[in-house]
Fold this sequence. Notes:
It contains 10 helices and 11 strands. By secondary structure, it is α/β, with parallel strands linked by helices.
Amino acid sequence: MRSVLITGGSGFLGEGLIEYLVRGPLQGQVERVCVYSRGEYRQAQLRVKFPEGKLRWFIGDVRDERRLRRALHGVDTVIHAAALKRIEVGEYNPSEMFATNITGTQNVLDAAEDAGVKTAVLVSSDKAYQPVSPYGISKAAAEALFRRHNGKLKTTIVRYGNVAGSTGSVIPMWRAIEGRVRVTDPDCTRFWMTREHAVEFVLSFAVHPVHVLRTPVLPAFRLGDLAEAMGKKYNVIGLPEHEKMHESMGPGKSSDSARRMTVDELREELKRVP
């Protein structure tokens, strides 16, 4: 793995991947890291944070296959993390979510194959398992495209839950609110994963690709316990149809049967969440 391109590279996970590749254990192995995303301002911020010369910056959308082909020239590994992720956005704009998450994924595969890329890793979601929302459906379809891809390109799928502190997720949202927060159901459970763990998990299969779905073993937490750990009182608003009570990585891997994190454990973990 000498030259890496990250789609959605200016996002929360992308930032963690950049740091690991240019300053972490793999920095001596990687000669070039290409950041491919639509976020002009976010890229500008990251250019200040990461002035390393091995970084290349591409403004582009995964819906644009021609732009992808140009960006992938000379790349041997692509990490496909770009996606529209917000559940409520997909409910009102399913066609837009499908255009990015499904058609965009096919574009990445086609462009990577044409450019001679060796390995492609899809960053998927626990919501792809038994999906109940357009987002989950789109990620399940993206997994199918990677799973059924034929060609010289080696493909790997990694599936995990929300990363603690990721953009638009519950922790930064609740931190920004003074007073009571809204909870769908305090007994909802979700998996807990740090950005550092997510980065290491993704890159382990970028370095050693396997043509099977990979999922990590993660602890889980109750939303009510998270609110308590954050010192938040809450109002219960009820679970919408497009949300699950419990998430799952696959058969027998549900968040309600995973090891349950205590309130005290959550308090300690929150100290390390950016």
